[in-house]
Amino acid sequence: MRVAVIQLNSQNDWHANFAAAEAQIKAAAATGATYALLPENFAFFGSEDDKRAHGGEISAAATAFLAHAAKEYVITITGGGFPIAASSGKFYNSALTFAPDGKLVHQYDKLHLFDVSPGDSVSYRESATTESGQGELSLIALPPFAFGMTICYDVRFAALYRKYAQLGANVLCVPAAFTELTGRAHWQTLLRARAIENTCYVLAAAQVGAHGKRQTYGHSMVIDPWGEIVAEITSETPGFCIADLAIERVDDVRRRMPSLYHDRRRI
User: Fold this and answer.
1) Distance between CA 83 and CA 56 in Å, rounded?
2) What is the pLDDT of residue 266?
């Protein structure tokens, strides 16, 4: 199965963001990719005030865009986190997956919210506008693979990924907008750890560059179940990278290193 992880430099103009994303999706599909992962904030990367004011419009536009692009390029697409209205009056940070027929097949609402002051002169308070996800975890079936979806800050919470692996996931997805500071320190280490400890592929699609006062790290990548980086965007620019996933690779690693099955807390 050929997959594409897409790297973007999204801003606060969602129409321009959709055009940039579509160009990458079209190019990835032309290589034979049957699945594409867009990063967190692919639709909109602006202020919390703008999100409050325009969240409903962004949500409707992003959902329509993803359905169109999936059908137009005959590819399964996950749009990394964008605002979906919650009953509380806030928004969920949701990743929606659309099948090649343009139909919605999966929604994941981000569990762990980024309320952090990491030391880059910016304080992040995602909970000001965002509600933590409440739904049950479920997998995206793309036989012979089963995908577990997460978003950005989730990657620091290993139990979430182990739960997905116990549910049967062999691919773990991390659409993200990692800060430059935390990305340089932790991005690759965290992603490789999630792959190694769960003997799963990890697909990580990132934002890159400047977004107003924010700076993101990029380095979108695909990691195999042994923890090897098999594809990576090393340039600090938008683009995509391609990897061919093999179920035989998952089976081989799990035979040689059956740690997932040795977990005494397995449920």
Assistant:
1) 8
2) 60
Domains, the chain: 2-262 (3.60.110.10)
| Segment 11-37 mean pLDDT | 97
Mind listing the pLDDT tens digit for each residue in 192-209?
999 999 999 999 999 999
Q: Is the dihedral of CA 168, 145, 199, 205 positive or negative?
A: negative
* pLDDT tens-place string over residues 43-77: 999 888 888 888 899 999 999 999 999 999 999 99
- Estimate to the nearest angstrom the gap between the alpha carbon of 245 and the chain centroid: 17
Separation of alpha carbons 43 and 52, rounded Å: 15
Question: Given 40, 126, 131, 180, which residue is catalytic?
Answer: 40
- 90, 126, 131, 152: the catalytic one is 152
Phi, psi of 155 (to 5 degrees): -65, -15
CA 59 vs CA 39, 93, 100, 123: distances in Å: 15, 10, 20, 25
Which residue's structure tokens are 């692996």?
Answer: 165
Q: 103 catalytic, yes or no?
A: no
Distance in angstroms (rounded) separating the CA atoms of residues 98 and 69:
9
> Cβ distance 123 to 129 under 8 Å?
no
| Among 110, 126, 173, 180, the one annotated catalytic | 110
Q: What's the pTM value of the predicted model, to 2 decimals?
A: 0.96
| Nearest alpha carbon to residue 214 among 126, 119, 127, 120 | 120
CA-nearest of 113, 128, 100 to 36 is 100
Residues 220 and 208: their CA atoms lie apart, in Å, by 9
Give the number of other CB atoms < 10 A from CB of residue 85: 15
- Give 166-195 pLDDT, tens digit per residue: 999 999 999 999 999 999 999 999 999 999
Is 40 an active-site residue? yes
Eight-class DSSP state of 127: G
